[in-house]
Amino acid sequence: MSAVRRLIVNADDFGLSAGVNRGVAQAHEHGILTSASLMVRAGHAPEAAAYAKEHPRLSVGLHVDLYEWHYTGEHWIAAYEHVPPGDATAVGAEVAAQCERFCALMGQEPTHLDAHQHAHREEPAKSIVLEFGRRFGIPVRGFTPALRYEGGFYGQSGKGEPWPEGIAVEALCELVRALPEGASELGCHPAIDDESGSTYSAERTIETQTLCDPRVRDVLAEEDIALRSYRDWAD
Fold first, then answer.
1. Exposed, middle or buried: residue 129 (CB in 10 Å: 0-12, 13-18, 19+)?
2. What confidence score (pLDDT) does residue 165 get?
3. 126 Ramachandran zone, left/alpha/beta (phi>0; psi -120 to 50)
4. Alpha-carbon distance 81 to 32, whole Å?
């Protein structure tokens, strides 16, 4: 009989850099990471896909990458935009291209869909990503009723200010204990010595250490929470 509470631990930004790939591998093999979302436009996506093929227990979805924004202290500015965010035709073509690229890299369809900086929460990306979720028959983060998203494991504030308390072992254990009944996805961003230039960098190495800390797995056992991937979360 399945545990009442089930937890997917999913790494965003898989393929962003060699350091991110190292962190995903470490957290999967020695920690609680069960799934990852692949950035197919990123330069290290082929290496990430190769690793996933060698480790089939790792469930891999598509991390749709449309843009990235940074907070400067006064304003949000675009670090890059692959397409104009409000252009439905361009967004649709880009999402389709990234889905095609994913299937080419992985040799299979994604197990789930989400988006960099949660771009799929806003239109027109929302409707487009949801349509691809329906086509593939897979969950879309935040829009699958039986699957709750938990984004509290993060080392910065909403404006990019450091918040190391958010990625401490104690914080993760508290999040785990507070999980509601049913299935949840815990988002995370592990890496080891990330060299991507991301504004979220040193925090990634700390996340990896926390995800691999045996105290977290002890709490999962104490709370009778079963680790699941996107392949078996609905047991």
1. buried
2. 96
3. alpha
4. 33
Both tokens of residue 28?
A: 């999967």
- Asked whether the beta carbons of 167 and 173 are under 8 A apart, the reply is no
List of domains in the chain? 5-228 (3.20.20.370)
Q: Which pLDDT tens digit goes with each residue over 84-124?
A: 999 999 999 999 999 999 999 999 999 999 999 889 999 99
Low-confidence ranges of the chain (pLDDT < 70): 1-3, 71-74, 76, 78
The pLDDT assigned to 204 comes to 96
Q: How many other CB atoms are there within 10 angstroms of residue 21's CB atom?
A: 28
Whole-number Å distance between alpha carbons of 68 and 80: 6
Cβ proximity of 9 and 227 under 8 Å: yes
CA dihedral 131, 108, 52, 172 (to 10 degrees): 30
